[in-house]
């Protein structure tokens, strides 16, 4: 039986909320991230904090795990705000939503806003806004 | 109030590195990792993940500003052009006038108690000088 196809990000309305389960920021992931980005800065070890982009990339991956990006989607903008350091072994709780959605010239522009809270904190340690541009369905099928 | 200097960071990309990033981030979009697929696409070849190239800017800021960047940094960028997997990319930052209320009218954690923040124009270019990413970075003064 074929696996059911996932919902396309382009089909979700403004205000749609994402609530992926909490996950751990593992040493394995951070090592793989540091190796892939060729970032050997010692500040992460010295402070015990994770690279902010590692946290943001992991958060985005968790959000987009719930949906499928239409072919040809473009990541056109990114905002990241570090409000506190994220410990390297933190358990992360993520919430996200489609903060903006517009259609223009056969394109859908969606802004995903996400908050990352570390270790059951009450305030986000990192927030982000990701802009994705996608083609509308009828355009993709043409 | 003079913003600390931020030294540029240059990285040579490769398909191997992009493949490693795809594994680490679990983003195996074929435009990044499938050379045959990408060759047949309008882009004509594989491109690096935007977040991989953006990591060069964050690395640059962390190298110069240290823990303050990890705890109080703020980054706002647009992806202007894709980075090819064989590109050499250079991240750089230019200090802007320090502001008591830097990016917004509302106080944010990026601003220290007196509201002061260092603000930079940041960008990432390839070996041909093409701007791949541009935007602003900010960190609390004395943070």
CATH superfamily of chain A: Hotdog Thioesterase
Report the total helices of chain B. 5
CATH superfamily membership of chain B, which one?
A: Hotdog Thioesterase
Distance between the termini of chain A: 28 Å
Fraction in beta strands of chain A: 25-35%
CATH class bucket of chain B:
Alpha Beta
Report how far the terminal alpha carbons of chain B are from each other.
13 Å
Total number of distinct structural domains of chain B: 1
The count of domains of chain A is 1
Can you describe what's shown?
- Chain A has 142 residues and is of the alpha+beta class.
- Chain A is 24% helix and 35% strand.
- The mean pLDDT of chain A is 91.
- Chain B is elongated and about 50 Å long.
- Chain B has a single domain (9-140), classed as Thiol Ester Dehydrase, Chain A, CATH 3.10.129.
- In chain B, a hairpin with a 5-residue loop joins strand 4 (117-125) and strand 5.
- The two termini of chain B are 13 Å apart.
- Chain B is built from five helices and five strands, in the order βαααααββββ.
- The interface between A and B is large, with 38 and 36 residues.
- Strand 3 (74-82) of chain A pairs antiparallel with strand 2 of chain B.
How would you describe this structure in keywords?
heterodimer, A: alpha+beta, Thiol Ester Dehydrase, Chain A, six-stranded antiparallel sheet, 4 helices, 24% helix, B: 143 residues, alpha+beta, five-stranded antiparallel sheet, 5 strands, 29% helix, elongated
Please outline what is shown here.
The complex is a heterodimer of chains A (142) and B (143). With 142 residues, chain A is an alpha+beta fold.
